[in-house]
Each structure stands twice: as structure tokens, then as C-alpha cells.
Amino acid sequence: GAGVSQSPSNKVTEKGKDVELRCDPISGHTALYWYRQSLGQGLEFLIYFQGNSAPDKSGLPSDRFSAERTGGSVSTLTIQRTQQEDSAVYLCASSPLQQTQYFGPGTRLLVL
Amino acid sequence: KNEVEQSPQNLTAQEGEFITINCSYSVGISALHWLQQHPGGGIVSLFMLSSGKKKHGRLIATINIQEKHSSLHITASHPRDSAVYICAVRSMDYGGSQGNLIFGKGTKLSVKP
């Protein structure tokens, strides 16, 4: 079956613009995660969705970042008023509850 | 001090060598993950473990909960094993969320033919 997919694969935007990043998890996976990897840095947790529970937003770096997951499937990560420090690879992963995570290919975001 | 420390940061090996990558953590955990990130950026989950030892092909992962330490071993290494290996822990110290993984900075492995 299909793995986790993300779109777009690359995004270049101007500082101050809003961007939306999309994640399509593996069908049936109840958990969905967003991570960020800045150039030369390690992975950083952003947000976690599990079923119908309230998402864990503890990793979001500022209130410019938000995410939603519609119908327990597709998720969108929105960054408002982008800044240059938002440039990074944004990775999505999904899993059955408390099981191995499957990662998407990521979206490379460059804020000019 | 980082909550998850990996060593070494960089490792160069000759094809066929036995490789060990270490991960130490300072928080209580419910699970530990080993991930592999290929040069193109794709990430693959290798292991998730909470005790003992797991083996998959030439890869072996062990964890010692009491010592807060895990190792990833690669037997008969091959150039295609060249990648960044990342240790991540699911902490019990963050309000019970199952999602908040804490990542090590990764170990960059290069296996020469």
C-alpha cells in the first residue's frame, strides 16, 4: 500500500507570507506527527494527533504555527507570516497507536 | 546538557566492520526509537523498543533501562549502510503525551568499500 505522502515536496516563499503543508498518512493509522529538521540540526517534535483526542501542541515554536487533522486522516500544518528561521524540512509521520512510525518524504521550505 | 546524547557524532568504517552506535538519555522513557536518515533525507524507522534486544537482518538494537542506554549494532557493514542514525526517546516526563519524541543529534556513518 501507499506510504505517507507530503505535499508540496519543495516550497519557496517570501518572508511574511503564509504557507500550508499537507500530509496524507497511511490509511488506518490513528496517530499523526509533525516534525521539523532545520539545516544541520536534529529533528524537532512539533505536534501530535491521536484519534479524536486533543492534539499535543507542546512542540509548536510559536503561535504562527498551527495544524489540523480533518476526519482523522489528512493533516495540514500552517505557518503564518513566515520568517527566515522557519526554513527547514517539515516531516510528517503516522503510526498505529504506540507503534513504529512511518515517515513521509518531507517538505523542504525555504523562506527568502 | 541534551536529554538524548549519541556517540560518536561521526563514524567512518571499512566495509565488513562491526559497528556500534550508542545512545544515552536522562529522562524516564516509555520507548526508544532508532531511525535511519538516508543522504537524500528520507527517514526510516529501524526499531522501537522498550526493553531487551531486537534484531532485523544485520541490525541489532539493545536497551538497558536501568542504565538509560541503548546501542545500535551493524554487523558486516556495507556502503549502503551509510546514513545518519538517530536515537529518539518517548519521554514519560511530558504529561503523558505519547507523541513528544526527544531526538538525539544523530550519528553520521560512512562505510567505505
Chain pair with largest interface: A-B, 27 and 23 residues
Q: What is the SS-derived class of chain B? A: mainly beta
Order of helices and strands of chain A: EEEEEEEEEE
Stretches of chain A where pLDDT is under 50 for at least 5 consecutive residues are none
The count of helical stretches of chain B stands at 0
The number of strands of chain B is 11
Cα shape of chain A = globular
Structure description:
The complex is a heterodimer of chains A (112) and B (113). Chain A has strands at 5-7, 10-13, 19-24, 31-37, 43-50, 65-69, 75-79, 88-95, 102-103, 107-111. Chain A is mainly beta and 112 residues long. Chain B is an all-beta fold and 113 residues long. Helices cover 0% and strands 59% of the residues of chain B. Chain B is built from no helices and 11 strands. Chain B is globular, with a radius of gyration of 14 Å. The termini of chain B are far apart. The interface between A and B is medium-sized, with 27 and 23 residues.
